[in-house]
Amino acid sequence: MSLPPEKASELKQLIHQQLSKMDVHGRIREILAETIREELAPDQQHLSTEDLIKALRRRGIIDDVMKELNFVTDSVEQELPSSPKQPICFDRQSTLKKSDGTRMADSTTMLSISDPIHMVLIKTDIFGETTLVASYFLEWRSVLGSENGVTSLTVELMGVGTESKVSVGILNIKLEMYPPLNQTLSQEVVNTQLALERQKTAEKERLFLVYAKQWWREYLQIRPSHNSRLVKIFAQDENGINRPVCSYVKPLRAGRLLDTPRQAARFVNVLGYERAPVIGGGGKQEQWCTLLAFLCRNKGDCEDHANLLCSLLLGYGLEAFVCVGTKAKGVPHAWVMTCGTDGTITFWESLTGHRYIHKPTNPDEPPVAEQPKPLYPYRTIGCVFNHQMFLGNCQPSDAVETCVFDLNDESKWKPMSEEAIKSVCAPGATTSLPPFPPLCASTIDASVTSNEIEMQLRLLVSEHRKDLGLTTVWEDQLSYLLSPALASYEFERTTSISAGNEEFQDAIRRAVPDGHTFKGFPIHFVYRNARRAFATCLRSPFCEEIICCRGDQVRLAVRVRVFTYPESACAVWIMFACKYRSVL
């Protein structure tokens, strides 16, 4: 049995309260004394767990506790297990009460769970680079009508993106219900249910498409120039399926893996950036990844980053939206916006983690003083959306710097019907994506990985200098003194607050003798390939000057610090440094 962390915590609290209420600990102590005194043989001094359980059962304490416990769970669509091998799940239609601790969801309840199993196939090369191979949504409920709760399936996996019509292989799957259901359904009942759902889904999609076309016609009637604005109602996923953009965003809680919204922004930032591959010319390939596919390959386009960041900020209780527009030179882009209770509009750049406060300017008013140029890189905005709302920008100008983000003003933002969005994007809707998977804790040992990369870089630097006819002398103490600077850089990236720089500078001044010169070069990566990082560093003239330093009493230092985030994402900070005697 597998429970989400939040439910496990609630369960522990319930059990603790019940144990305290019934003074179970005191009764256990009495039983232990009785057991030792009366039931154990004189030559048996060890009290086993089995002996204790038997004593508790004989006195009815276990039965009393289980009868008093009452599990009450509200509808929790987003916390349903994604695997049918976990039938201890909560009915998405009604409140489920369990008092005996043993009853499993019946076959009818299981049949009502329409969420498929999302399987993602990735390929990892020897350098750790991942490639998305296939993404498949498995309809698992055929097992409910099979004998003994066991069935075998053969599915064809198709490629992704431009290769979504190309087969990449056949996957043989065996499904088994565990524990077995008390009563299986007939295959006819299962097939009828699936056929009805497909019919219902098709009708909902048709009605939403009709509504979206009508909404678009009304939007163009406001101002014909709206036709050139980036108003994105549908987007293709990795399988080439058109989905409403609102379905790519859902509130996502990070549990204890991320503590603050800014830390969440940093996590999204360290996930790799990669545009969807395109065959030939013709511009950018259209592909928005589902969350699971994005997290599995640990990289994606700006839309993938923005959807994930918006989902996390919604999970923290903020009013967040994905913005679709352009940046410099008219390049299409997506970023995140939050609306504060005081009206403050904040832009979050998901690719860098930077935050910008938006202050609109009125182009019709003569400026009292020269208006400073906005710091954010965004130029135009066509629409904003989240899991419940979609709004098209219908202001005279779509320039971000002049936009007013009063989303309740329908003269500035044309909304879509929330009911229409809910019909195809709400949790439980058969057309929506399955519940987002919980984030996984990092499997990377930060200390070990930091040391490994550092040793590899030392070897690469020594070999590089040897090829130039230079000797290499490393100074471990100087390397160690670089650590606070790297920690300070990461803290500043996460919080936008600079701290600890004074202590670092003071330590370096003490470590560098009079008449000597110190040079340092910090650089940041989101991958752990030492050779690739070294090649990038050499392309910087300043870093190359440090690595190839010539002079009197040259001492080199390098420090690596890996900061881990969920899904084995990481920020890798490297600093190369040298000190040498200055010769005038």
From TrEMBL:
Subcellular location: Cytoplasm, Cytoskeleton, Microtubule organizing center, Centrosome, Centriole
All residue ranges annotated as the CEP76 C2 domain in the record: 96-182
Ranges for domain CEP76 N-terminal: 10-69
GO biological process, one term: regulation of centriole replication
SUPFAM superfamilies linked: Cysteine proteinases
Superkingdom of origin organism: Eukaryota
Keywords: Cytoplasm, Cytoskeleton
Pfam families: CEP76-C2, CEP76_C, CEP76_N, CEPT76_peptidase
Major localization listed first in the record, in broad terms: cytoplasm
Annotated ranges, domain Centrosomal protein of 76 kDa C-terminal: 443-581
Domain CEP76/DRC7 peptidase-like span(s) in chain numbering: 286-416
GO terms for cellular component: centriole
Subunit structure comment from the entry: Interacts with CCP110 and CEP97.
Function: Centrosomal protein involved in regulation of centriole duplication. Required to limit centriole duplication to once per cell cycle by preventing centriole reduplication.
Assigned protein family: Belongs to the CEP76 family.
Protein name as annotated: Centrosomal protein of 76 kDa
Organism of origin: Nomascus leucogenys
